[in-house]
Amino acid sequence: MKLLDKDGKDLGEKVSLGVVEAGKSQDFEFTIYNDSILAKIAYIKAEIPHAEVSVIECPSVLAPKAKGTLKIRWKPSLTIKQGLHTTIKLSASELYS
């Protein structure tokens, strides 16, 4: 399973969310790609170790070689001059039929 940006580049787990003004929110969209040729993945979970970033949409199941949309929202309480750099850890169960 891979986390991709809007151009299809593999991000690994590290993402940069840039600068968002305190009190406002911004949504970000990524793609989750099931790179397995055999296994369907289910119970997909995206964990972000930052209290002000939340998952607002995540696929629950992806067939082999399928893609799904991950949407997150960042609503900072402080404006961070250098922007937010964080990780998105993906986990899922593989299902074989």
List the helices and strands and how they pair.
Elements: E1 2-4, E2 14-18, E3 26-33, E4 40-47, E5 53-57, E6 61-62, E7 67-74, E8 84-87, E9 89-95
Antiparallel strand pairs: 1-3, 2-8, 3-7, 4-6, 4-9, 5-7
Give the structure's gist in a few sentences.
The protein is mainly β. 0% of the residues lie in helices and 52% in strands.
Detailed description of the structure:
The protein is mainly beta. The chain has a single domain, classed as Immunoglobulin-like, CATH 2.60.40. 0% of the residues lie in helices and 52% in strands. The protein has no helices and nine strands. The chain has a four-stranded antiparallel β-sheet, with no helix packed on it. Strands 6-4-9 form a three-stranded antiparallel β-sheet, with no helix packed on it. A two-stranded antiparallel ribbon has the order 2-8. The chain is elongated and about 50 Å long. The model has no long low-confidence stretch (mean pLDDT 94).
Number of strands: 9
Order of helices and strands: EEEEEEEEE
CATH topology: Immunoglobulin-like
The total of helices stands at: 0
CATH architecture assignment name: Sandwich
Q: What is the CATH top level name?
A: Mainly Beta
Which superfamily, in CATH terms, is the homologous superfamily?
A: Immunoglobulins
What kind of sheet is the major sheet? 4 strands, antiparallel
* Large-scale geometry: elongated
In terms of DSSP E residues, the strand content is over 45%
Q: State the share of residues found in helices, binned by percent.
A: under 10%
- Overall number of structural domains: 1
Whole-angstrom Rg: 14 Å
Average pLDDT:
94
The span between the termini is 18 Å
Q: pLDDT below 50 for ≥5 consecutive residues: which ranges?
A: none
